Amino acid sequence: MRGLLLIIASFGVTILAWGLYGVTLHEGQRIMSTEPGVYARLRPFVCVGLAYFAIGVIAPAVLLATRGEKGTWTFRGIGMSLLAGAFGAIGALGIIMAFTFGGRPSFVMPLVFGGAPVVNSFLTIYWSKKVKEVGPLFLAGLVMVVLGAVTVLLFKPAPPKKSLAEATVSSVANDQSVANDQAPAQAALATPTIEAEVVQEVQQASLFGGRFLLQLLSIATVIGCWGAYGPVLHQGQAAMQQSRLRPLLCVGLAYFAIAVVVPWALLRTTLPEASEWNFVGTAWSLAAGAAGAIGALGIIMAFNFGGRPIYVMPLVFGGAPVVNTFATIILQGQLNEVHPMFLAGLILVIAGAAMVLVFAPKGGPTPAATQPAKALKAEPAQPS
Question: What keywords are annotated for this sequence in UniProt (predicted)?
């Protein structure tokens, strides 16, 4: 019973951290942008990678050097953990690319959070050779979690919308503080702005109209990468004898390479964007990266306490978007606009999560934990 509580507490940390990830990153993107209505992409992504490097590389390296930990370095463990980190970073980039190609969160995120746990479950079942142990109640719980998460995302309160004319007039009024007798001049200033924005929207619609396939490819990339993240990380941890710090360090290194080195090079060379470094935007983006890294540690801890990817990851993917949606609703002051279907989706997630936990396939350690692995450095197991 104590082990189950530790597992729940561990992936509960991940659900909370990854649920707040999107909210904080979105705010960082908004503040770093220098173009109204456009969100920065590369600079916030660099901040995410830097936070991962601090929490997922520097901190584990210091702890390993000073305190040590059970487990050992192995080629298989390093390779699988680096691959897991690459999957996580590429998935995050895939979300950004889906939005860049014209995708909207209203359908991108439901597809991602609906598809990733399915990929995770089938990959885990295949690797652990537990197909015969999967019962109908477990599958029913898994379907309930997925459907509940999608329902929550689809029926969350929409942000208040202003017409294009209202937004433009409001912007002019705030910037210039004109008197009432200057209303005609204000309208004259607003009219060309409205026309320019309408033309821009038409151009964007024409541009993105031919990119629907790229949207789908980006979404499919995220589903595949984030769906494989948990099982691959579990394999890496098992190959390093259930070490916690070593897999996290590898994940951090992969994030640093993909989320810091690559976008930084793009910013300096071929792909500049309308954004700037500023204190507030950097702080929000670093907080998003910290949430992502803490979430990764929570998953590692859940695996260390005996959790399995077959139910840990579906619960994370089911719970994180619910936390994200509630955080958004609270920040926007829309608690009074909650749709009944939103509450129904939340109930589905909770009930499905309980069924997944209770009826998850039982069994011994994964094949990676039982097969001998070639150690890079022998070191005595130490309590952490």
Answer: Membrane, Transmembrane, Transmembrane helix
